[in-house]
Amino acid sequence: MTKGLIILLHGVGSNGKDLAGLGAHWAEGLPRVAFTSPNAPFPFEHGAGYQWFSLSGVTSANRAERVYHAREAFDRQISAILAIHQMQDRLENVVLVGFSQGSIMALDAVVSGRWPVAGVVAFSGRLASPLPYDMPVKTPVMLIHGMADSVIPCAESEAAARQLRELGAVVSTQFDASVGHTISAQGARSASEFIATCLA
């Protein structure tokens, strides 16, 4: 029987294959855990790849609205994945792992209360969800961010950590010097250890 399921959520303009290798890298240390890395539901407007919501004209003022309107397609996709893996009633064995825009959606999934999963790992992301929050405090979160990130500043994860802790969530953070908008080897190792704890 599958012990757990990790759903990998890629960044804007990318595709599921981009994070599939991360799952393959983790598989040996996470036995009986299944991995899936879907494409986001919408084609990227400015080239190849996919997106969870449009970045055209996005601002700090309208980003939360974009996230809100992305929920329906996101939830439909997550529900379909859970059905395939027969995990609909086993959210306590599911971990969401996001990168960049995928992290925005992973954090939104839990902070909105819609998906009380076993844990969330957010690489190079931000908390951009509309209020009100309904965070399931039993869901631990790990935020990993490069301090040299010029796409989404590290300060966004620092702010997210503060907000999530104010909601009562258990939050782990790792801020890596000299790392840009990417997943470092150390970040990947730390995430794997965190996931193992979530699924223990």
Summarize the structure.
This protein is an alpha/beta fold and 200 residues long. It has helices spanning 17-27, 63-84, 101-111, 154-166, 185-198, and strands spanning 4-9, 33-36, 42-43, 50-51, 94-99, 119-123, 141-146, 171-176. α3 links the parallel β5 (94-99) and β6 (119-123).
The DSSP helix count reads 5
- Helix/strand-derived class? alpha/beta
Low-confidence stretches: none
- In total, the number of strands is 8
**Percent in strands:** 15-25%
Percentage of residues in helical conformation = 25-40%
Strand order within the widest sheet?
A: 2-1-5-6-7-8
Order of helices and strands: EHEEEHEHEEHEH
Average pLDDT reading: 95
State the major sheet.
6 strands, parallel
Shape: globular
| CA radius of gyration | 15 Å
Q: Cα distance, first to last residue?
A: 15 Å
Structure description:
The chain has 200 residues and is α/β, with parallel strands linked by helices. It is 36% helix and 18% strand. The protein is built from five helices and eight strands, in the order E-H-E-E-E-H-E-H-E-E-H-E-H. The strands form two sheets. It has a six-stranded parallel sheet, with helices on both faces. The chain has a two-stranded antiparallel sheet with strand order 3-4. The longest helix has 22 residues. The two termini are 15 Å apart. 42% of the residues are buried.
Topology (elements, then pairings):
Layout: E1 4-9, H1 17-27, E2 33-36, E3 42-43, E4 50-51, H2 63-84, E5 94-99, H3 101-111, E6 119-123, E7 141-146, H4 154-166, E8 171-176, H5 185-198
Parallel strand pairs: 1-2, 1-5, 5-6, 6-7, 7-8
Antiparallel strand pairs: 3-4
Helix pairs in contact: 2-3
